[in-house]
Structure formats: C-alpha cells, structure tokens
Amino acid sequence: MEVNFIYEGFKIMLLGMGTVFSFLVVMIIMMNIMSKVVHRFFPEPNDVANTTSPAMDNNAKKVAAITAAIIHHRSSK
Amino acid sequence: MKSFVLKLFAVMLFSLSLHASDAHTTGAHADATTTSSTHKEETYQAQSLGEMTVSFLKSTGVYAIMSPDPDEMNAHGEPMSDFHKSWGRVLMIFITFFLFYLAIAKGYEPLLLLPIAFGGLLANIPVANIAGAHGFLGVIYNMGLSNEMFPIIIFMGVGAMTDFGPLLSNPKTALLGGAAQFGIFGTLVGAVALSQYTDMFDFTLQQAAAISIIGGADGPTSIFIATKLAPELLGAIAVASYSYMALVPIIQPPIMRALTTDDERKIKMTTLRHVSRLEKLVFPVMVLTLAIMVLPDSTPLIGAFMFGNFLKESGVVERLSDTLQNALINIVTIFLGLGVGSKLAADQFLVIDTLAILVLGLTAFSVGTAAGVIMAKIMNMFPGTKVNPLIGSAGVSAVPMAARVSNKVGMEYDRSNMLLMHAMGPNVAGVIGSAVAAGVMISIFG
Question: In this complex, do A24 and B282 lie within 8 Å of one another by their Cβ atoms?
Fold first, then answer.
C-alpha cells in the first residue's frame, strides 16, 4: 500500500497551523486578562512617583542644607 | 615535652617510610612501562632516509588529495567516494573561503557564519580527521550538538535579550507571528511533493520537516530540529538558515511591496501603551504554563527561552542575566558554529540534497513573509485599530533584523512613520510561534 506523502504533508500543515494559531490565540486572551488583572489589583505607582519626585527633591535639598549646617556648626567649635 | 618531640619524630619517620615504599612501587611501575616501550621499539624497523622521506610525503595533504586513500572513512565510519576525498574537499575549502568573504566583507551574520565556515574549513582537511569522533570538532559536535544542548543554551541567551513589552502592549500582533509559520508548513508540503514527483530528491517526511523549519527564520530552532530529525542534513540546513537570516533585508522588501498598496504602507499605528514590570514578569511563566498544558514537546525550547527572559525581568539576578546575554551565549556560539561547521565535510555537503535545501529554505522564508503580510491585511478587514501590513513580515522570527526591515520600508513611504517597536511584537511572537511549530514536528516525528 503506497502512502501519499503529499496528503500526509497537508495533514501535518493543518494540524501544525491549527496548533500554532490556537496557542497564540489562547496566549492573546490570557495576555489581555493578565494585563487587566495586573492593572486592576497591582497598579504601578507610576503617576504617584511622578508627583512625589519634586517633593523628594525638596526633601533632599533640606537634608543637604541641614547636613551642611551641622558640619559648619561642628567645624566652627 | 621531650617525649612529645620524640613521638613526633617517630610519626614523621613512619610516614616517610610509607612514602618510600610508595615510591618503590611506582618505581616498579616505571620499570614495567619502560620494558613495554622497549617491546614497542622492537616493532619499529630501521628505515633509510629515502624510505622515511617517501612515507612522510605520503602523509602530506597534497598526496592525500591527489591519490585518495581507498580505506579512508568519513566521520561516521562509512565509505565515501573518491571525489569527496579529493577535489570535493578542495571545492569545499573554497566554499568556506567564500563564506568568509560573505561574513567579513558583506557582514552576513558574521557571529555565526565565521565559526561555521572555519569549522567547515577544518572539517575538510584530509588525513587529520578533525571532524571524526576523536577530532576536536567531532568532540564538540558530540558534546553539545548531537544532544541538542547548544541550541537550547543559545535560546536561554536570546530569551534574556528579548523584551516582550511591545507584544504585551499590543497582543493581537501575535497573530502575525503565527501566520508567518505558514512558511514552515507550506514548505513541508513542497519538500514532500518534490521528492514524490522527481527522482532526483528523496526526502523522508522527517527530513522534509527539518528543512521546512528554515522558514521559521530562527537559527537555534532549525539546528535543534535538524539534529533531532535529520542530523545528516544539519550542515546544509544551518548554513541555509543563517544565510537567509542575513539576507532578510534583501529577500523581504520586494515581497512586502508586492503585497501592499501605497495607502496600507502609510498606515500609522497608535503609540504603544506602557507595560508594567509585573506584566513582563508574569508573561514568561504564563506562556510556559500554556506550553505545558497544550504542547509539552515544545517546552525544551519555550522553557529555555522563558527561563532567560524570566531571569532578566525578575531584576534581582542581574549577574546571571548578564552572563546569559553575553559571556555564555558568546562561548556557546563559538562551539555551536564549529560544531555545525563539522557537518560541512565534503561528503555531507556536496550532495544534490543541499541544492534542494537552499531552494526550499528560500521558499519557506518568502512564503512566511508573504503569509505575515497577508494576515495583517486580513486583520484590517475586521473592525478595530488598523495594523500596518508592513509589520506582518516581521512575524518570521529573525529578531531583530526583520523588525528593522519593516521599519525601514515603512520609512521609505512616510518619513515620520516609526514602525520598529510595533514590529517587535510580531517579531518576538514569531519566536514563540516557531518554537510551537517545532514542538508540533517533534510530537509527530520525535
């Protein structure tokens, strides 16, 4: 009995492309769900960080000023 | 105190005498070896200077090429034709010189092409048998290629270099990476048809599968599958795969232009949203979980890939991720190249099959590119944000070259249209897609 290899090839093509596409489609769905979950429950403190950074700068400046004052005070003793 | 010193002396003396007896036994061994070597000397017969010169001249490369040794076997211990022993080797050495030229002067994937070509040069040296089981190329091949370890390590490094951000911010572009895998399966049918209808080629289904994986445009995957399904074709498949990856900027643009209209090429894509660190961290584990559930045969490739990516995105093992991306991948690339080069021996490369592999590989590549572009056009028929079809071609892996080509072609039609990051999405999805396709091949033939 002769096997028709071209027919076999087409079967592998159908199975392969089907697997690749279903894998990627499920992956896309999972990616969408995952990003929704992450954004809902674990939002990145990005915007918060942006607003606080000037404040941090301010703090750092204050710390620097205080340190300088202390050093000056100690050295002038 | 005194008695203690005495005891110490006694112990030292005892140990010394032990050493002495040790030395004596080894001396006896040495005697035995010298006697055996004198036995050998008896078989060595005195030769006149003339005889010596003649036997030396018979061991030169020129003599070996001029009059091939009828008893010489190839790397697998099989007999080979006189052509493959003599002028075939010379021809192959010139082919490796040509590969040097392509790598150095033309800059075609020099990182891999140079080690491969030099390995090919070494493998074609007569007499020395470097690619044989005990030559160093043969040792390298058995160390990490015949057991598929080197491509896996390369995959870890590639994973550590990959950024899934663009894909995560526009998930549907992953479909383009899937469509491009049509090149693989379409070529599989082509290769089978070729061996069915012509008498010249006779590929088994396994060999056809190994050849068609070239269409995935992913070097390590091609090598992985070739060593698994058709190790006898490894040299030609690897050379074809890496040459075409280097030729992406020449092969792809005409196909992309032919399949798109002017308006489509000018489609602007919306800017990508920001992707949080947690998403990038969850993604590799998520894809691996999916692979475990659907296609465990693909997990060697996907697992290694995601391992590298996970180390990078975790952000706490900077040293390991740095080693994967640089030192380790460089070391393994050297070994991988030399090992693949050992398969460029004349008796394995100078066969008619190589020609078919080069042609089929090119077909696979072109079909994959076309399928990606067409898929993007199909996606545009559905409502929703439009996709520029030029990024479809990036669905063949070839990271990041294919994405750069999409960007370049897009810029030719609209200077302000930056497609690079958009094209990276299908590009990395293509890597996953070809790993899945490889898994399908393994599950069918493995």
Answer: no
